[in-house]
Every structure is written in structure tokens, then in C-alpha cells.
């Protein structure tokens, strides 16, 4: 051992000191590269979040000093405002319907694109993923052109096929406007959710499928008893990510429907924006901050419940693997 230590030079205190010095220099460079991003994170994420809690206790327009402390008055006003609960209801409807559509559809597409002998799989994946990298505000502006008036592209397409006899004002009625918003939202996130499912499918050992094939299991039995049970933990995480994504659709709603008609597609993010920047009135940043805090607590609560569901799914998935 002494010979080995001497040959490697580790017994020499100077060598150990130089080793520690090199290690410290290497970590120092890593921290220097991280520092700008960390500084931006503190300034543009942590600080605004903390200050929003402070502003929520003041009647403040965003201009001048904080000198009118109102304690919980802003929160009481938010909780008593019918417009806030209307926006919150719309958010929940959007999340529920979008999630109900996007999860099964993306799972089916992921299963199809995971077939090894399917030609052009990479091309199909790229096509479905393209909307994900497109800015949501641009998507909203383009979709408004497609659905926005009687002479819009979608109406002309349906008229040419003979599906409708006269143009439909898709964005002029709350129900149809919400339907368009949900369909566009599904199309926008379809690719990324599909990629999540594909990642989950590729973690399932091929041995399971080979054993099922030897046992004479068909495609439906393989899907039901192998693929879906082993995908359950991944599916729970995808559900969580989809729900959290559906809570923040400000840019899409702002450019596509602007919360209309008659606040039928109004969302909490848009509600907060109107009060914070005084659209049609004087800015009320303190009130908007209180609304943001209330919505943040709601999101946190929903996330906790879904996180508990994810944990249960993970435990269930582990028990299935052990049992298998």
C-alpha cells in the first residue's frame, strides 16, 4: 500500500493540496458560468414573486410609494368578485377538457409512432412537435385569422365541403369560442405530451413484450396488461404537467379571444393582467397581486393533490413490477 501511495504521489501533502486546488478551480469556473443565470432568476423570478405578496396588502397603483396599507381588503374583494370566479371557472373548464382530449390522443399517437417497423417515424414526430416551438401569441394571431370572421379560412373550407350552409361566427359565442380555444390549445401542446409518452414507452423493457408474445397475448391484451399498467407512473406525471400548463394560457387567450365574447373565455391570468396594467381603467397593482396570490394558492393546492396522485401511481407501478 505504501508503495502504491508513493507511486501515485497521494502521500505527499503538497500533491494533495494541488489536487484540492485544481478541484476548487474547476468548481469555481462552474459557479461563474451559473452565476449570470442565477442572478437573472433572483431578479426576474424570485424578487417579483416575493414583492407580489407585499403589494397584495396595499392599495397601490404601481406608481409612487407604498403608503396605503389595507391588510386583507384586497383578498376579500377578490374572493367576492364574480368576474374572478368566472375566470377561475373558465380556467378549470379549459384544463378539464384540454386534459381529457390531449392525454388519450397523444398516448394513441405515441403508441403508433413507437412501432419499430413504421416508416417515417422521425418525420411524423417532427411534424407533430413543430407547434410546440411556435410562440403561443403567434399561434393565437394566426388562429384568429383562421376562425375569426365569416370569411375566415375554416368557414370557407367547411362551405366548400358542404358541411355547413352558412358561415359560423366561431369566436362570437362563448361556447364555440371556448371550443376553438381548447382545440387550439390541444394542437399547441400535442407534440410535447406525445414526446413524454414516447419517453415512457421506451422505458418499458422489451422482455415484457417478448414474454407476452410467447404466452400468446394479442395486441389488446399486451396494451391492457403490460403497456398501460407500466405507463401509469409516467402518465401521472404527464397529467400533472398538462394541468399546470393549462393554468397559464394568457398569451393564447389574449391574442385569440381577448377573454371574450362576454368574458366567456376569460382566464385568471388575463383577469390579473387587466387590473395590473389598467386596461380600460386605472392600474390596481395591489389588487392584481392579491388575485395572483389567491390563484397561486389554488395552483399549489391542485399541484399537491396531483403530486399525491403521482406518488400513489409510482408506488403502484413499483408493486406491479415486483409482482411481475
TrEMBL record:
Q: Does the keyword Transmembrane helix apply?
A: yes
Q: Where are the transmembrane segments?
A: 28-50, 92-115, 127-147, 175-201, 222-244, 287-310
Subcellular location, record wording:
Cell membrane
What organism is recorded for this protein? Paenibacillus gyeongsangnamensis
Does the keyword Transcription belong to this entry?
Answer: no
Top-level taxon: Bacteria
Please give, as recorded in its UniProt entry, the membrane topology of this protein. Multi-pass membrane protein
Using the record's annotation, list all stretches that form the ABC transmembrane type-1 domain.
88-306
Q: PANTHER family, per this entry?
A: BLL4140 PROTEIN
Family of the protein in this entry: Belongs to the binding-protein-dependent transport system permease family.
Name the keywords, alphabetized. Answer: Cell membrane, Membrane, Transmembrane, Transmembrane helix, Transport
What InterPro entries is this protein classified in? MetI-like, MetI-like_sf, UgpAE/MalFG_permease
Protein name per its UniProtKB record: Sugar ABC transporter permease
Q: What is its main location?
A: membrane
Amino acid at each position: 500500500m505504501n508503495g502504491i501511495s508513493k507511486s501515485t504521489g497521494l502521500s505527499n501533502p503538497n500533491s494533495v493540496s494541488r489536487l484540492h486546488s485544481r478541484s476548487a478551480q474547476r468548481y469555481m469556473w462552474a459557479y461563474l458560468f451559473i452565476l449570470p443565470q442565477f442572478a437573472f432568476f433572483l431578479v426576474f423570478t424570485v424578487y417579483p414573486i416575493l414583492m407580489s405578496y407585499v403589494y397584495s396588502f396595499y392599495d397601490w397603483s404601481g406608481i409612487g410609494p407604498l403608503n396605503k396599507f389595507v391588510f386583507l381588503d384586497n383578498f376579500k374583494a377578490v374572493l367576492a368578485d364574480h368576474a374572478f370566479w368566472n375566470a377561475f371557472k373558465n380556467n378549470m373548464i379549459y384544463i378539464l377538457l384540454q386534459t381529457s382530449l390531449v392525454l388519450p390522443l397523444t398516448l394513441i399517437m405515441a403508441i403508433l409512432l413507437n412501432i419499430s417497423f413504421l416508416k417515417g417515424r422521425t418525420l411524423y414526430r417532427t411534424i407533430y412537435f413543430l407547434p410546440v416551438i411556435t410562440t403561443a401569441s403567434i399561434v393565437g394571431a394566426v388562429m384568429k385569422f383562421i376562425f375569426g370572421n365569416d370569411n375566415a379560412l375554416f368557414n370557407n373550407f367547411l362551405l366548400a365541403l358542404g358541411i355547413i350552409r352558412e358561415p359560423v361566427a366561431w369566436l362570437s359565442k362563448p361556447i364555440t369560442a371556448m371550443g376553438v380555444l381548447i382545440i387550439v390549445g390541444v394542437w399547441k401542446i400535442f407534440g410535447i405530451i406525445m414526446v413524454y409518452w414516447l419517453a415512457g414507452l421506451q422505458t418499458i423493457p422489451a422482455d415484457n413484450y417478448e414474454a407476452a408474445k410467447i404466452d400468446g397475448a394479442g395486441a389488446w391484451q399486451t396494451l391492457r396488461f403490460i403497456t398501460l399498467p407500466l405507463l401509469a407512473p409516467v402518465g401521472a406525471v404527464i397529467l400533472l404537467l398538462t394541468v399546470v400548463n393549462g393554468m397559464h394560457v394568457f398569451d393564447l387567450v389574449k391574442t385569440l379571444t381577448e377573454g371574450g365574447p362576454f368574458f366567456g373565455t376569460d382566464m385568471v391570468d388575463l383577469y390579473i393582467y387587466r387590473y395590473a396594467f389598467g386596461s380600460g381603467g386605472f392600474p390596481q397593482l395591489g389588487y392584481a397581486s392579491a388575485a395572483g396570490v389567491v390563484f397561486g394558492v389554488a395552483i399549489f393546492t391542485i399541484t399537491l393533490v396531483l403530486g399525491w396522485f403521482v406518488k400513489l401511481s409510482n408506488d403502484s407501478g413499483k408493486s406491479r413490477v415486483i409482482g411481475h
